Amino acid sequence: MHPRIEDYALIGDEQTAALVGTDGSVDWLCLPRFDSAACFARLLGDKENGHWRIAPIGAERCTRRAYRPDTLVLDTEWETDEGAVRVTDLMPQRDRAPDLVRIVEGLRGDVTVRSTLRLRFDYGSITPWIRRSDGHRVAVAGPDSVWLRSEPEVRTWGADHCTYSEFTVSEGESVAFVLTWHPSHEPRPPLVDPYASLATSVADWQAWAARCRYDGPHRDAVVRSLITLKALTYAPTGGIVAAPTTSLPEELGGVRNWDYRFCWLRDSTLTLGALLAAGYQEEAEAWRNWLLRAVAGDPADLQIMYGLAGERRLPELELPWLAGFADSGPVRIGNEAVKQVQLDVYGEVMDSLSLARSSGLPSTPQMWALQLALMDFLCKAWRQPDEGLWEMRGGRRQFVHSKLMVWVAADRAVRAVERDPHLEGDVDAWRALRDEVHREVCEQGYDPERNTFTQYYGSRELDASLLLIPRVGFLPPDDPRVIGTIDAVRDELCLGGFLRRYSPEKTAPDGLPGSEGTFLACSFWLADALHMTGRSKEARELFERLVVLGNDVGLLSEEYDPVAGVQLGNFPQAFSHIGLVNTALALFGTEKAG
Predict the structure, then answer these.
(1) Is 134:114 a contact under the CB 8 Å cutoff?
(2) In the predicted model, what is the mean pLDDT of the chain?
């Protein structure tokens, strides 16, 4: 049986990440960056595409697993007839090279353990040449070189283009494995001490988690979400990837499979708000600074997403040798949606910079100049149709959410000048734009017969992004049109108690066959909207149902199938965890835990 998405746990070093299954197998790892080619790609194929499993001989799924409290250090335990063992997995903060550390510890009895390392570079397509050197196994192919060692050395041999190790551990004994990557043309980097790395990692993560200001109900889930966001941060630049994976399907067996190992501007305001509210100003400032660097340039060239360091070219292609997760092909790398026009990103950038300024983040000289340039462009271009928030691949429309965010951009520009008259800008033109957009959305994006805003002008379809109308201040929460929209969205887009983004079966501009699951971030938006409109009891009940969708180690994917009861989409998903943090802060921010 193929693993489920929720069978995986995340480890990482803030530059890349690995997914570890309940069977003790690392099935996904890209080196040296989140967006590099995978050397373990079993997640999207089979064992021949690369993995590294450590488990007792004959054992399958583990007995239990958990992160060490407030860390990204994973403990996986097996109970067998012969005894019990624990495998501790981590990726220590790197100095020069990325390391994957796996420590096997005997807990009871005498247990024989096997390590099966099957390295396959370039997403499982290249089998490396392996040799011995100074007690290491060294795998080389093209630009990649990986070194494996154990402390103490254990019986290790090669067969079938794999590296096997087998040993017995008794109570109190341990064997540590370290896998290190470096460019093949460079000398091997300095060795790391696996046990010192473990102690340092635990201390560092716990110290970071202790900075969290939230102390309300479900604090463990909030902290786990914040740790996940930190793990999805590319430390050298401050950019936050949407997920560390590509092509995990939004429908099992379907084609809605995308590469999420990039940084989306649409996440910027919500991410910034979550980090600032939870007490992580340094991380918020790093994200804001990434944003400023990424979007610098001609406003007409603003993209919806960028690479980890702000790269603009993210060409999309398919990998035909990978069957896809649960045979859900195609497997894609890169993302063609980078070329789309999405006007909402201008509003998201303006909103993010407004939030940064009002929250006391240090300003930069170019920040207001950038905002002026963005507003200049929007004043001329705001009427054009676009592909919308959800990256529709079936043609451009006048999406209501896109116009809503144009209104946000104009509103935040006006407010900035009202707060600080020293800022230069054509505030009269911005006020006029704000009023015109507001009037047009209320006239053309609203269905008076059903008392609801719609997905795009002239349509009858609905969209979960309409729930953001009161959140961004377009209309007050008690406006009958807001309440009608919330009710209509909940009635028409709910499936099994959770919310879909829209109805793919009805939405003509989707441009894709098949369907998808409920979208977790949108379900958190529904809880927020219910709370804002005075229905806090319903909001809390929905939040309680959402929190328990996390897997056994508290991780959420992009979507959830309430019929099959499984997670869908790329995993873990930053947008879902941002939603959890922001909704918890909104519902319980003034309450104490317990």
Answers:
(1) no
(2) 94
Cα dihedral 15, 279, 466, 549, rounded to 10, equals 70
pLDDT in tens, 285-322: 999 999 999 998 899 889 999 999 999 999 999 999 99
The reported pTM is 0.96
What is the b/e burial string over 201-233, where b = at least 16 CB atoms within 10 angstroms of the residue's CB? Answer: bbeebeebbeebebebbbbebbbbbbbbbbbbb
**Side-chain half-sphere exposure of 143, counting CA atoms within 13 A:** 7
Q: Could you give the CA distance from residue 25 to residue 32 in angstroms, rounded to a whole number?
A: 19
d(CA 510, CA 493): 16
- The phi and psi torsions of 495 (rounded to 5 degrees) equal -140, 115
Give the span between the Cα atoms of 526 and 542, in whole angstroms: 8
Give per-residue pLDDT as tens, 222-236.
Answer: 999 999 999 999 999
The contacts found for 199-207 with CB under 8 angstroms, 24 or more apart, are 200/92, 200/93, 201/71, 201/72, 201/73, 201/90, 201/92, 201/93, 202/68, 202/71, 202/73, 204/93, 205/70, 205/71, 205/72, 205/73, 206/69, 206/70, 206/71
- Dihedral sign (CA 433, 438, 443, 446): positive
Are 208 and 230 within 8 A, CB to CB? yes
Alpha-carbon gap, residue 317 to 395, rounded angstroms: 21
Q: Is 204 helix (H, G, I), strand (E, B) or coil?
A: helix
pLDDT band of 468, cuts 50, 70, 90: very high
Rounded to whole angstroms, the Cα distance separating 263 from 240 reads 6
Angle between helices 520-532 and 480-493 (to 10 degrees): 150
Measured distance CA(408)–CA(485) in Å, rounded: 19
- Cβ contact 305:338 at 8 Å: yes
Tokens of 519: 């979208």
Residue 584, phi then psi, degrees to nearest 5: -60, -45
394 pLDDT more than 90: no
Residue 351 near residue 269 (C-beta atoms within 8 A): yes
Q: Using 50, 70 and 90 to split pLDDT, how confident is the model at 594? A: very low
* Structure token digits, residue 482: 């807001």
293 neighbors 286 (Cβ within 8 angstroms)? no
Residue 363: exposure state from Cβ atoms within 10 A (0-12, 13-18, ≥19):
exposed
CB atoms within 10 A of CB 341: 17
